[in-house]
Design goal:
Elements (H helix, E strand, L loop, with lengths): L1 H12 L3 H9 L1 H27 L2 H13 L1 E5 L9 H17 L10 E6 L11 H6 L2 H11 L4 E11 L22 E6 L11 E3 L24 H7 L5 E3 L6 E5 L5 E2 L8 E10 L12
Antiparallel strand pairs: 1-7, 2-3, 3-9, 4-7, 4-9, 5-6, 5-8
Bound molecules: 2-oxoglutaric acid (AKG).
The site of 2-oxoglutaric acid has 10 residues, from loops.
């Protein structure tokens, strides 16, 4: 996979990103890379998964994800999740640690990175965040959505915040992620999140399984994000989902679809974790150490 990622970076450098992605996303390359994981999934499903999928909330999330590329639930609704209090306690400790020894803000001044793919799972085996990340319901949802055994490839814990800027920057603009044609980012809120403190937005149906996967594709390769007016002229307003929610809310997004987030129009912050599940064809090498 590392060689493929290097090849991809080379293609980007010489302006061949788009043809590279088109070939990479074809079923054949996907099937070869993910073949063994599809087989494993079928075996696992026949033994284990049906019990998990029988849980009503797991089924709701899977149905919404398949249909919209987007779903929302809460830690209180999924079995074996940590409590909101335990999650908030751990978040506050991570924030104290970050204040004492800050991570880089590389490219996103509006984000304080409390965890940047460097969470120590070995030392914190039973922590609230470890229990969230390794929760069997989340893995079952990702496996069912991808129809293969997924990989966890990234864990970030962020405090995004108001900077005084009135214009959106970077991922605050509409974009797609190009790591893979299908992927799953799971956002966990440690506090209430609304449109005034960074809530993400998602165009329902713009994911690979949806009806608008080809709309506004490959825009970011030229460094241009999709504009608000392009989104509004291509999609009815009821297709735009707003990822707001109280502490403990879990938002699932296939970020191969059109999304944006982290914009703060007024003073305030968003306390959030982002856990990524990928297929084996993700072009970004996994950074997780769990
Ligand atoms: O919610 C955010 O801050 C943006 C996240 C994002 O663009 C992504 O995860 O790809």
């Amino acid at each position: 996979m590392i060689q493929i990622a290097s090849l991809f970076h080379f293609a980007q450098r010489v302006g061949l990103e788009r043809p590279f992605l088109q070939v990479w996303r074809k079923n054949i390359s996907h099937k070869i890379i993910n073949g063994p994981r599809h087989l494993l999934y079928r075996a696992w499903r026949s033994v284990n998964a049906t019990n998990l999928e029988r849980e009503e909330e797991v089924r709701n999330v899977i149905n919404n994800l398949n249909r919209f590329g987007y779903a929302k639930t809460h830690v209180d609704k999924l079995r074996d999740m940590p409590t909101v209090n335990d999650l908030q306690d751990e978040y506050n400790k991570l924030l104290e640690r970050e204040e004492a020894s800050p991570h880089s803000r590389k490219g996103k001044q509006f984000i304080r990175r409390l965890v940047d793919d460097d969470y120590d799972f070995k030392r914190n085996k039973n922590s609230a965040i470890s229990r969230f990340v390794t929760n069997r319901m989340l893995s079952a949802i990702a496996a069912n959505y991808f129809e293969l055994i997924p990989r966890r490839t990234s864990l970030k814990v962020w405090q995004s915040h108001f900077t005084g800027a009135t214009e959106r920057t970077a991922s605050q603009n509409w974009h797609r992620d190009y790591n893979d044609k299908i992927m799953l980012r799971v956002f966990l809120y440690f506090d209430e999140v609304t449109e005034l403190n960074g809530a993400g937005e998602y165009v329902a149906g713009s994911h690979f399984k949806g009806d608008a996967f080809e709309t506004l594709q490959y825009r970011e390769e030229t460094g241009t994000y999709s504009t608000e007016s392009e989104i509004r002229s291509n999609f009815a307003s009821d297709r735009i989902k707003i990822a707001n929610g109280d502490a403990g809310t879990i938002v699932f997004m296939d970020t191969g679809g059109l999304h944006r987030g982290g914009f703060h129009p007024q003073p305030g912050d968003r306390k959030v974790a982002l856990l990524t599940f990928s297929t084996a064809a993700d072009l970004q090498p996994s950074r997780m150490n769990n």
